[in-house]
Amino acid sequence: MGQALAVSYVRVVGVERITPRTARVTFTGDALAELMEDRPDQQMKLCFPREGQEGAPRLPEPDADDTYGMRWYEAYLAIPEPERPTMRSFTVRGYDRRLDVMTVDFVLHGDDGPAARWGRDARPGDVLGMVGPSSLYARPLPAADWLLLAGDETALPAIATLLETLPAGARALVWAEAADAAEERPLGDATVHWVHRDRGGSLADAVRAARLPAGSGAAWLAGEAGAVRALRRHLVEERGLSREAVRFAGYWRRSLTQDDAPTEEDLAWAKEQAGEG
Question: In whole angstroms, how far apart are CA 245 and each of 144, 232, 255?
């Protein structure tokens, strides 16, 4: 049996600009101690007030009988549109159980979207809504001789948590795409191959040009959906990794937001995630 996705409020207790385009925000909340798990790559959704609204956003009412964790979305859609919060997906960068604070990194994209706009202006005392995280969506990494981790700025928090929990002696290879060298940051003990867009680099091209080790390999890929799809196909069709050995997620879509309707590419992406493509 599953478990219902928790809906709660979190409050800002600290803000730090860790790179020119990344704000690290720490939150506290009454439900954090119960919700946070000791595992990497915890995904959740943050709910932002509509522009012009002040104070905490309105949240969907939790449903104790929501066995599979889906009725919260029906309740979310039932909120009148002028009051319905804007929702975006994030990865928990860390949780300090002693201090009961959660850390989330906000990539400050140039598109002035609601999450980036909020992250630029965040102050202690600001309140957001949160849906999740939930072990319903936990996906253990495949067993292999070596692990490839690749993603853009939006994937760096997850990559960092994955590296922090790898067993001693595990071999990890990391490719990370960022706007420029100023966006680099420590990600753990692994050697990180940084790819800078201001120099014409792309994540897909960098991984295609890489020499991968012998032995069985596995991969974890995340970031812009089109780039992740291309990388996954390259690793499966050209590098010989099995489909089961590649975990992948499209965190965002070029020129589209999570509010936009699915495109044909999105539907194809969903089939690939289900193992049908």
Answer: 8, 10, 30
pTM more than 0.70: yes
Angle between helices 225-233 and 264-273 (to 10 degrees): 50
Ordered by where they begin, the domains of the chain are 7-136 (2.40.30.10), 139-273 (3.40.50.80)
Reported in sequence order, the residue ranges of the chain that DSSP labels E, i.e. its strands, are: 7-19, 22-28, 43-48, 86-91, 94-96, 101-107, 127-131, 146-151, 171-178, 192-196, 217-224, 246-252
Using one digit for the tens of pLDDT, what is the confidence trace for 223-239?
Answer: 999 999 999 999 999 99
Closest CA to 60 of 130, 143, 144: 130
Nearest-5° angle of CA 20, CA 22, CA 28?
140
Q: Express each pLDDT in 239-268 by its tens digit.
A: 999 999 999 999 987 655 545 444 455 445
